[in-house]
């Protein structure tokens, strides 16, 4: 339970160092995008790489070469998907979700909250953690494609350019806000 063998102990630093160096090289060659968390797909790949590295380090039945091949495969697949999604909008639509306004012009967008399974209290928590005490003074809260939430500046300071990709929802929300 506490000790199996000296061979096992010697394997961890040797295989760990080699696997770590290889992973760093793979990431360097594949580019910065490999470890971004711009959407849920990117997060899954990052977690899978960490899990694969962990498995190579601690599981004697997984050879270093197998682990390196698994990491390379994940990186190549992630590269292929992102490369394709940049060039073909239909692929992008399959891989990446769209950002969603949850609060606009100080008003909660209840349909969007239900669709995204987010509560008003969660939005208020995000506002507090971003230094906003009153939802009525906030221009928008956007659920980003990676699952994080962005709080846009107070109404008087809100830049319109930041919501270009969620414009349709923003325009509808703004129109309903003006008619109230």
Automatic annotation (TrEMBL):
Its main location: membrane. Keywords: Cell membrane, Membrane, Plasmid, Transmembrane, Transmembrane helix. The keyword 4Fe-4S does not apply. InterPro entries: DUF421, UPF0702_alpha/beta_dom_sf, YetF_N. Signal peptide: none annotated. It is found in: Cell membrane. It holds the Pfam family YetF_N. This is DUF421 domain-containing protein.
């Amino acid at each position: 339970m506490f000790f199996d063998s000296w061979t096992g102990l010697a394997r961890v630093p040797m295989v760990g160092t080699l696997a770590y160096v290889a992973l760093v090289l793979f990431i360097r060659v594949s580019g910065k995008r490999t470890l971004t968390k711009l959407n849920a797909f990117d997060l899954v790949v990052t977690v899978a790489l960490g899990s694969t590295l962990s498995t190579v380090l601690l599981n004697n039945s997984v050879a270093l070469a197998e682990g390196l091949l698994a990491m390379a495969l994940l990186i190549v697949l992630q590269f292929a998907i992102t490369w394709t999604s940049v060039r073909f909008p239909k692929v992008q639509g399959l891989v990446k979700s769209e950002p969603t306004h949850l609060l606009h012009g100080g008003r909660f967008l209840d349909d969007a909250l239900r669709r995204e399974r987010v509560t008003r209290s969660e939005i208020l928590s995000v506002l507090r953690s971003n230094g906003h005490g009153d939802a009525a003074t906030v221009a928008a809260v956007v659920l980003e494609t990676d699952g994080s939430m962005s709080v846009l500046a107070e109404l008087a300071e809100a830049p319109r350019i930041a919501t270009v990709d969620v414009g349709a929802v923003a325009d509808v929300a703004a129109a309903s806000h003006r008619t109230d």
